[in-house]
Every structure is written in structure tokens, then in C-alpha cells.
Amino acid sequence: MNDSSPDSLIPYDEIVQEALRAVVGRVLGEIVAGGGVLPGEHHFYITFKTGAPGVSIPPHLKERFPDEMTIVIQNKFWDLGVDEQGFTVGLTFNQIPAKLDVPFSAITAFVDPAVDFGLQFQALSQDDEPEPHDEAGNDAPAATEAEPGSNVVSVDFGRKK
């Protein structure tokens, strides 16, 4: 595409983002359908905007992660539930149990390091820079960055203003 290409009247970027977020829902739904047990070495790092509409997390986590948070779904999780709008899960943070409700629209990244697979999504507000925050604290190892050549899919259509 070049600078003289016409603006699309079809919101392709939004459609693709929605479809990729549906991948996250299907993967989590497969875990629920399988009795809530992750197969093999699979585990997930899910990053989401804590202030996005529909996100429900305990106040102490919102205070600690005012903009964005990464959770790890691996060994210590319970009550994983998935619907068309998002997911809910129970996790521990410094040995304190918490229930999180996260709409798919709030997710900015999904990674399964066991198979070198990842998805990155456009942030809800492209003008906002993420504020610094503590590392994920739900009793699991910190997430690692995907290496070049991995199966990370990143879609950014760069909007014209």
C-alpha cells in the first residue's frame, strides 16, 4: 500500500483484531472443555489493560497495575470460565486468592511459550503509553520476550489521522 491509497470504508483492522482475540477465547475454551487442565507443557501469559471497560480485578491489583497486567495461567488457577465476551479465572497473587474477569477486547498479548506461539494486539488507546508497573505476581515465573523468528503474530494497520 502507498500514501495515495484510499481510506477503507471497511474496518479491516478491527475485524482482524476481533478474529485474533477469538483465537484466545477458543484456546481457553478448549481448556475448560478438557476439565480445566492444561495439556502437556502448555501455559499462557495473558497481558491486558486493567482499566479497560469490563475488566474486574481486586482493588489491590488495580492499584499495583494501574495500566496493564500480565497473568500466568499454568499450575495454580481455578474456576476458568469462558464466554463470547471474555474469560474469568481464579489466581493467587503473593498467596492471596483473586478472581479476575477480563473481556477479550482488553487483551493486548497472548503467549504460549511451550510451543513458541504468541499474538499481540493493538492497545485500546493508541495515544496512551503504558505506565511502569511491577512484574506479574501470580506465583509464576516472569514472562519472556518472544525471539525473532518465533510464531508471534502482530497486526498493526497504522491508522491515518
Strand order of the largest sheet: 2-1-6-7-8
Distance between the termini: 16 Å
The best one-word shape is globular
Domains counted in the coordinates: how many?
A: 1
CATH class: Mainly Beta
In which range does the helix fraction lie? 10-25%
Given as residue ranges, the uncertain stretches (5+ residues, pLDDT < 50) are 125-130, 142-148
Beta content: 25-35%
Mean pLDDT score: 83
Largest sheet descriptor? 5 strands, mixed
CATH superfamily: SspB-like
Number of helices: 2
As for the CATH topology, it is SH3 type barrels
- Total number of beta strands: 8
CATH architecture: Roll
Supply the helix-strand structural class: alpha+beta
| C-alpha-based Rg, rounded | 16 Å
What does this protein structure show overall?
By secondary structure, the protein is α+β, with helices and mostly antiparallel strands. It has one domain: Roll (SH3 type barrels), CATH 2.30.30. It is 17% helix and 30% strand. The protein has helices at residues 12-33, 59-64, and strands at 44-49, 68-73, 77-82, 86-93, 96-103, 107-112, 117-120, 151-154. The strands form two sheets. A five-stranded mixed beta sheet has the order 2-1-6-7-8, with helices on one face. A hairpin with a 4-residue loop joins strand 6 (107-112) and strand 7. Mean pLDDT is 83; it is low at 125-130 and 142-148.
